[in-house]
Amino acid sequence: MVPASPAAADLEVRALSKRFADHAAVRDLTFSVARGSFFSILGPSGCGKTTLLRMIAGFIRPDSGEITIGGRSMAAVAPNKRPVNMVFQHLALFPMMSVAQNVAFGLARRGVGKAERLRRAQAMLERVGLAGSGDKRTDELSGGQRQRVAIARSMVLEPTLLLLDEPLGALDLKLREHMKIELKQLQSAFGTTFVYITHDQSEALVLSDHVGVMNHGRFEQLGTPQELYFAPATSFVAGFVGANNRLTGSALAVAGDLVDVAAAGGWVIRARAHGTIVTGAPVAVYVRPEAATLARAATGLPQGQGVHAARIVSLLFDGANSVALLREASSGLELRIALPQTGALADLKMGERVCFSFDPERAICFAAEANA
Amino acid sequence: MIFTRRFRPHPRARRMACLLAALTVGGALATEHAGADDAKVLRIITWADYVPAELIAQFARESGIQVQVTLSNNEEMISKLRATGGAGFDLAQPSQDRIIEAQQEFRIYKPLDASKVRLEEFVPELLETVKRNATVDGKLYALPYVWGTEGLIYNSKRTKITDYTDLCRPDLKGKTAVRLKRPTLMAFALASGKDPFALYGNTKAYTALMDQVGRTLIACKPNLRFFYDNKDQLLNGVRSGEIDAAMAWDSGGWGLNRTNPDIKFINPRSGSIAWMDTFVLPARGRNDAGAYAWINFVMRPENAARVAKSVGNFTAAKGADQLADARLRAQFAETFPDGLKNIKWYPAIPAGLEEIEGAVLDRIKAAN
Amino acid sequence: MPDTTMTVNWRRRLVLALLLAPALLWLVGLIILPHVDLALLSFRERVAPREYVPSLAQYRTFFAEPLYWHVFVRTALLSALATALTLAVAFPIAWVIAKVARGRASALLFMVCLIPFWVSETVRTLGWMILLRESGVLPSLLTHLGITAQPVELLYHDATILVGLVYTSLLFMVVPLVGSFESLDNELIEAAYDLGGKGGAILREIVIPHAAPGITAGCIVVFMLTLGNYLTPTLLGGKNSQWFTEQLYTQFITRFNWEQGAALGFLLLGLSTAMVWLGLKLSGQRFSDVMRRA
Question: What's the CATH class of domain B11-147+275-336?
Answer without folding.
Answer: alpha beta
